[in-house]
Write a structure and sequence with these properties.
- With 495 residues, the chain is of the alpha/beta class.
- It has 3 domains: 78 residues, Arc Repressor Mutant, subunit A (Orthogonal Bundle); 241 residues, Type I PLP-dependent aspartate aminotransferase-like (Major domain) (Aspartate Aminotransferase, domain 2); 110 residues, Alpha-Beta Complex (Aspartate Aminotransferase, domain 1), CATH 3.90.1150.10.
- The protein is built from 17 helices and 14 strands.
- The strands form 3 sheets. Strands 3-10-9-8-7-4-5-6 form an 8-stranded mixed β-sheet, with helices on both faces.
- β5 and β6 form a beta hairpin.
- About 1% of the residues have low confidence.
C-alpha cells in the first residue's frame, strides 16, 4: 500500500496567528478534496507525522479523529489511517492548489430577486449619526440607566416560564399594556387578544401580504410612498398601484379610478411618508367606504405620529373602523431605540387567530425577556413620560430647523411645516436633480434622502428628507449652513 508522504500532501505554510490544529485540518482536507492524496492512500503514522511537521502528536490525533468523523479518512486498528475509498473521483485530481470557490450558478426566483433587493442597509448604518439622517430617534436622550435597571430586575426574577416557549401572539401582559396605551393615545378600542407582537412593522407587512394577497392582486400604495412596503407587496406577486398624494394625503378618488377592485391599501395616515401631512378626515372616511364596497382591507402604518408638536396625537384611522377592515401597525424602534426590534399589530377580530398561526409558522414568537422588560417600562409609566419628554425635545429641534432654514436656505430649499414625526420634507426648485444634490451633500458630511427615491408610478416632487430628532441646536444650525453651501454650489449643475 503506497503511503502518502507529507511532501506529496503539499501542505501549505501556516499563516501567523492560525492555530496548528486548524491549519493541519484545513490542509489535509484540501489535499483529499483536491486529489493530491488518492483514494485509499495511507497517511503517515501519527508519531512520525507529528515529528516531521513540528507539532504535537495530540494535534495530529485530534485532526485525524475529526477527519474520520467527517468521512474523509478511515482508521484500521494496527494498519493505520487511510483516505476513504467512498469519496467520489474529483474532477481535477492533479490540482495541487486549494479547492477553487464554486461558480455562481444559483438562481433566485422572481420573488426571491425582489426580496434580495432590500432598500435597507444589510450591515446596519454607521454608529455615528450625521445631520440630517432620517428616521432616527435621539438615543442619547433615552433613559438607558432606567431601562438597564428594569432589565436586571426582570432577569433576576425570571422563572422557568421565561425560558420556555411563549405565546406566538406575544407576552400577554405586554399586549394588555399596549391595548391600554392605544386606547388613551390613539383612541383605538381593542382587546389584548387582537394585539400581536412582531419584530418590526416590516415583518407585519410581509405577513399581512402573504395572508391577504394572491399573485396578481392589486394593492394601493401612496405615491410617493414607503419603499419597504412597495417591495414587500411586490415580492408576494401582487401588483403595486401607486396612488397620488396631495396636501390632504392619499387621493382616494384617484385610487378608485386606478384600481377600483384592489384587495389592499397601505397608508401612513398619521404622517405621510415622505411628505409629512396627515390623511384628511374626509379621505379617511372615503377610504373606509371604499374597503366595504370593494371587500378590501387597509394596513395603517403608524410609525412616529406619537410625536405631534401641537396638541395631542391625531386619532388613528383605526379608531374609525367599525367594519373590521383596518390592520394597525406600530413600532417601538422609532419611539425608543432601533435595536429593540419590537413592534405590534392590532388585527381585526377575524384575522388575529390567522395572523398568530402564520407568525408561529414563520417565526414562532419574539424573545420573551425584552417583551417582559418593555411591559414593565410601560406599566410603570416610564414609556408615557419618555414620549412626552421627547415630544417636547423634538418639537424644539423642529423649530430650530425651521428657523435656520428660513434664514439660510431661502430660495434654495423650502422646508415644509413640521407638525409631527422625526423628519421633515423639503422641496428643491422645480426640475432639480435631488439625487445629485443628496450625493453632493454626503461628500460634505450631510446625510439626506432624495424624495425621488420614494416615487412609484409618477415622478415625486424634487426635494430632500431631513431628519432632525437626534441633533441638538448647534448640529442643526451647522448642518443647515453646510447644506446651504452645498446647494449654492450645486444647484446650477443639477437641473
Amino acid at each position: 500500500m503506497r503511503r502518502a508522504e507529507d511532501k506529496e500532501l503539499g501542505l501549505g505554510p501556516r499563516l501567523p496567528g492560525t492555530p496548528r490544529q486548524s491549519w493541519l485540518y484545513s490542509e489535509i482536507r484540501a489535499a483529499v478534496l483536491g486529489g493530491r492524496i488518492s483514494s485509499g492512500a495511507r497517511l503517515p503514522p501519527t508519531r512520525d507525522f507529528a515529528r516531521q511537521l513540528g507539532v504535537s502528536r495530540g494535534t495530529v490525533l485530534a485532526v485525524f479523529e475529526q477527519l474520520v468523523a467527517e468521512g474523509f479518512l478511515v482508521g484500521a486498528v494496527g494498519k493505520g489511517t487511510f483516505v476513504s475509498r467512498q469519496l467520489p473521483v474529483m474532477r481535477n485530481p492533479k490540482n495541487a492548489g486549494p479547492i477553487p470557490a464554486p461558480a455562481a450558478v444559483g438562481r433566485l426566483s422572481q420573488r426571491g430577486g425582489l426580496l434580495a433587493s432590500s432598500p435597507f442597509a444589510i450591515g446596519g448604518r454607521p454608529q455615528e449619526t450625521r445631520p440630517f439622517r432620517p428616521n432616527q430617534p435621539d438615543l442619547a436622550a433615552f433613559p438607558f440607566a432606567l431601562w438597564n435597571r428594569i432589565t436586571a430586575r426582570r432577569s433576576r426574577l425570571s422563572q422557568r416560564v421565561m425560558l420556555a416557549d411563549g405565546d406566538a401572539r406575544g407576552y400577554p401582559p405586554l399586549r394588555q399594556a399596549i391595548a391600554e396605551h392605544l386606547r388613551y393615545s390613539m383612541r383605538i378600542e381593542c382587546r389584548a387578544e387582537q394585539i400581536l407582537i412582531v419584530g418590526s412593522v416590516q415583518q407585519a407587512l410581509d405577513l399581512c401580504a402573504r395572508l391577504l394577497l394572491d399573485p396578481g392582486d392589486e394593492v394601493w400604495v401612496e405615491d410617493p410612498g414607503y419603499t419597504g412596503a412597495r417591495q414587500v407587496f411586490a415580492a408576494t406577486g401582487a401588483k403595486v398601484v401607486g396612488v397620488p398624494v396631495d396636501t390632504h394625503g392619499m387621493d382616494i378618488d384617484a385610487g378608485t379610478r386606478l384600481a377600483p377592485h384592489a384587495r389592499l391599501a397601505y397608508v401612513t395616515a398619521g404622517r405621510q411618508t415622505p411628505l409629512g401631512m396627515p390623511l384628511a378626515l374626509d379621505r379617511r372616511l372615503a377610504l373606509l367606504q371604499w374597503t366595504e364596497k370593494a371587500d378590501a382591507y387597509v394596513i395603517e402604518d403608524d410609525y412616529d405620529s406619537e410625536f405631534r408638536y401641537s396638541g395631542s396625537p391625531l386619532a388613528a384611522l383605526k379608531s374609525l373602523d367599525t367594519q373590521e377592515r383596518v390592520i394597525y401597525a406600530g413600532s417601538f424602534s422609532k419611539v425608543m431605540f432601533p435595536s429593540l426590534r419590537l413592534a405590534y399589530v392590532v388585527a381585526p377580530e377575524w384575522l388575529s387567530a390567522h395572523f398568530a398561526a402564520a407568525l408561529s409558522l414563520t417565526a414562532r414568537h419574539m424573545s420573551l425577556l425584552p417583551q417582559a422588560v418593555l411591559h414593565e417600562f410601560i406599566a410603570e409609566g416610564h414609556f408615557g413620560r419618555h414620549i412626552r419628554s421627547m415630544r417636547t425635545l423634538y418639537g424644539e429641534r423642529a423649530a430650530v430647523l425651521e428657523k435656520a432654514a428660513r434664514h439660510q436656505l431661502d430660495g434654495l430649499l423650502n422646508v415644509l411645516p413640521i407638525t409631527t414625526g422625526l423628519d421633515a420634507a423639503a422641496l428643491l426648485p422645480f426640475g432639480t436633480n435631488d439625487k445629485r444634490i443628496a450625493q453632493a451633500a454626503v461628500a460634505a458630511g450631510i446625510e439626506t434622502r432624495p424624495l425621488s427615491a420614494y416615487a412609484i408610478d409618477r415622478p415625486a416632487p424634487s426635494g430632500l428628507v431631513l431628519g432632525f430628532a437626534p441633533f441638538d441646536r448647534k448640529q442643526i444650525e451647522t448642518g443647515v449652513s453646510t447644506l446651504s453651501q452645498v446647494l449654492e454650489a450645486s444647484l446650477i449643475g443639477c437641473k
